[in-house]
Amino acid sequence: MRNLIDIMELSTDELRELVERAMDIIENPAKYAESCHGKKLATLFFEPSTRTRLSFEAAMYELGGNVIGFSEANSSSAAKGESVADTVRTVGCYADIIAMRHPKEGAPLVATRTAGVPVVNAGDGGHNHPTQTLADLLTIYREKGGFENLTIGLCGDLKFGRTVHSLICAMSRYAGVRFVLISPEELKVPRYLISDILEPKNIPYEEVTSLEDAMPKLDVLYMTRVQRERFFNEADYIRLKDTYILTPEKLRTAKKDLAILHPLPRVNEISVAVDDDPRACYFKQVLNGKYMRMALILKLLEVEV
Amino acid sequence: MIIGQIKDGIVLDHITAGRGMDIYRILGLGELDCTVAMIKNADSAKKGKKDIIKVGKVIDLDFDVLGYIDPGITVNIIENGKLAKREHLSLPTTVKDIIRCKNPRCITSTEQELRHEFRLVNAERKIYRCIYCESEAPTL
C-alpha cells in the first residue's frame, strides 16, 4: 500500500506516469468516469482550505467515487482532544483512501501508521504539500513542454511556503534546471534546502531581493502569498506582506513565453490586471491540480483503467 | 595518576576531551552504586587529549545514544580482568527519544505519545532531522 506524504517519495518515472495519466484523463474523460465506482475518499481537513479540498472531492466525483469527511477541526473529534492516530484509524474503517490537511507538520506521516488505507498529505503546516506540486508540475509540463533546461523564479515567502519547498525538491531532479530565489531577507528559503538539495547536486541557484532584476531570465515565475497564519507575530506579517506585487509593468521585461504560476489563494501579490495576460497560468494550475489528483487517486487505489 | 584496573566492567575510551562529564550525566552514571572513574584530559596518541570513563560493573549501554553524543568513543567490555569485547561506535542512522523536537509546529508538540525520532541526513556534518517536520536536531 502506497501513501503520498512527500513529493520525493515519487520517482521521476512515477511522476512521468502521473503526468501521462493526467494527460489521458484530459483527452478521454469518459474513459475514467466510472473508474472509482464504489470507492470512498475521506477528506480530513483540520485546517481551512477551499481549493485543495474541493479539488480532491471533484477529482473523486469525476472518477465515479464518493466523498466523506470534514472541513475543519472543530467539526471532528479532534475538538474533543482525539489524537490524529485514533481519528484516522476510525476513518480508515469507512474510506478507501484519505486526503488529510493538518496544521501540525508531520501529522499525515503519523496518520499512515494507523489508517490502514492510503493517506495523501494535503498540506501539513509549513512543511509539505505534494499534490500542489503535482499541479505545478503538470502546469509546467503543459506550458513549457517538459521539465528540463528551465530557469525557475520563486518569489515571495520562500521560508514558510511549503509549495515552494516541494517544488524545489521535485524540479531539482531534472537536468539543466536553475533557480532564482526572490525574497526579502527574512523569508529566504530554509538553509537545509540549499545544503541538502541544491548544493550536493550542483544545481545553479541565486538568492536575490529584486523581482525586476530577475524577470528577464525567467522561464517560469512562481509567485507566493505571504501567509498570515504562519506568523506568530502580526507586526512581522504586516511589514512583509506587500513586499512583492506582480503588475503588467513589471512583466514588460519578461520573456514572451514566461509561465506565471501561483498556488493560490492570492491576496494582492498578483495584480488582477495580470489575469488577462496569456502568460498567467494560475487558474489553469487549479484545473491541472484536479487532473493530477485524479491520476494520483487511481495510482494509490491501484485501479486499472 | 593511577587508577586501578577493573575486573568486570566497562571502559569508555577515546571520549572527546571535555565531553566526559556530559556522557557521565546522560548515562546516569551518578546513580550507580559501583566504582565509577572519570578521567579528564588524558594523553592520547590518536587525539592528543581524551576523556575516559571506567565503570566497575557491566551495565546495559545504548550504543545509539553514545554514538550520537560522541561517535569516536571505543567501548571496552572487561570480564575477569580481560578484554571480552570492543565496540567502535559510529553515528546511528536514527535516534529515538534522545533529543526532543523544538519546532512548535511539529506534530510531536501536541501528540504526547509520539516518540521523538530523528534521521541522520548528513554524516559529515552530523546533521539529524526530525522525521515528522524535518527540523534540524538541536545540539545535545
What would you note in describing this structure?
The complex is a heterodimer of chains A (305) and B (140). Chain A has 305 residues and is an alpha/beta fold. Chain A is 36% helix and 14% strand. Chain A folds into 2 domains: 7-129 and 288-300, Rossmann fold; 130-286, Aspartate/ornithine carbamoyltransferase (Rossmann fold, 3-Layer(aba) Sandwich), CATH 3.40.50.1370. In chain A, the strands form 2 sheets. Chain A has a 5-stranded parallel β-sheet with strand order 7-6-5-8-9, with helices on one face. In chain A, strands 2-1-3-4 form a 4-stranded parallel β-sheet. In chain A, β3, α5 and β4 (119-124) form a beta-alpha-beta unit. In chain A, α1 packs across α11 and α3 (51-62) packs across α11. The longest helix of chain A has 19 residues, at 282-300. In chain B, the strands form 2 sheets. Chain B has a 5-stranded antiparallel β-sheet with strand order 2-3-1-4-5, with helices on one face. Chain B has a 3-stranded antiparallel β-sheet with strand order 6-7-8, covered by helices on one side. With 140 residues, chain B is mainly beta. Chain B has 2 domains: 9-88, Alpha-Beta Plaits (2-Layer Sandwich); 94-130, no CATH class. Chain B is elongated, with a radius of gyration of 17 Å. Chain A binds chain B through residues 83-85, 102-107, 109-110, 124-127, 192, 195-196, and chain B through 103, 105-111, 113-114, 121-122, 125, 129-134, 136.
Keywords:
heterodimer; A: Rossmann fold; Rossmann fold; five-stranded parallel beta sheet; 14% strand; B: 140 residues; mainly beta; Alpha-Beta Plaits; 2 domains; three-stranded antiparallel beta sheet; 2 helices; 36% strand; elongated
Summarize the SSE layout with pairings.
The complex is a heterodimer of chains A (305) and B (140).
Chain A: H1 12-27, H2 29-32, E1 40-45, H3 51-62, E2 66-70, H4 84-91, E3 97-102, H5 107-112, E4 119-124, H6 130-144, E5 151-155, H7 162-171, E6 178-182, H8 191-198, E7 205-208, H9 211-214, E8 220-223, H10 234-240, E9 259-261, H11 282-300
Parallel strand pairs in A: 1-2, 1-3, 3-4, 5-6, 5-8, 6-7, 8-9
Helix pairs in contact in A: 1-11, 3-11, 6-7, 6-11
Chain B: E1 9-16, H1 20-26, E2 36-44, E3 48-55, H2 63-69, E4 74-79, E5 82-88, E6 94-96, E7 117-122, E8 127-130
Antiparallel strand pairs in B: 1-3, 1-4, 2-3, 4-5, 6-7, 7-8
